[in-house]
Amino acid sequence: MYGVGDEMTATWWLMQGEAAVGELRQYGVDQPVFLCHFTPGPAWETVRAQFEAWSALRGQDPDGSRTAQIIRSIMDLGLRLVPTDDSPSMALFTECILRIDGHTARLRC
After folding, report:
1. Residue 82 — φ and ψ, nearest 5°?
2. What is the pTM for the complete model shown?
3. Long-range CB contacts for residues 1-6, cutoff 8 Å, separation at least 24
4. Are 58 and 51 in contact (CB under 8 A)?
5. DSSP codes joined into one string, 49-75
6. For 41-89, how does the pLDDT look when each residue is reduced to its tens digit (9 = 90+)?
7. Which of 9, 27, 32, 89 fits a disulfide with 82 by CB distance 3.0 to 4.6 angstroms?
8. 72/23 Cα distance (integer angstroms)
9. How far is residue 84's CA from residue 90's CA, in Å, rounded to a whole number?
10. Is the omega angle on the peptide bond into residue 83 within 30 degrees of 0, that is, cis?
């Protein structure tokens, strides 16, 4: 599935248009989530605040409005994950969910 083999070496590029936001390298699985190392790319600073806001979201959100607002701000960035194995790219929050916290990331496809 999307470049994930038994050896757990899948790699994806997080892209915004033609700009590289960062690289994700899988190091493990916590079903149904792929655990990845995240390396920021040249365009990271343009999206960093939105991912940090989502990572910092704590406390109750009974109606989900705070979460929805943050996720919408990330969706509006038009990000996609591009596997390095020539599998089809995936649109964030349409085909996969990505959380980035520092140099680690959690990806659910």
Report:
1. -115, 110
2. 0.86
3. 1/109, 2/83, 2/85, 2/87, 2/88, 2/90, 2/109, 3/83, 3/84, 3/85, 3/87, 4/34
4. no
5. HHHHHHHH--S--TTSHHHHHHHHHHH
6. 999 999 999 999 988 888 888 898 988 999 999 999 999 999 999 899 9
7. 89
8. 22
9. 12
10. no
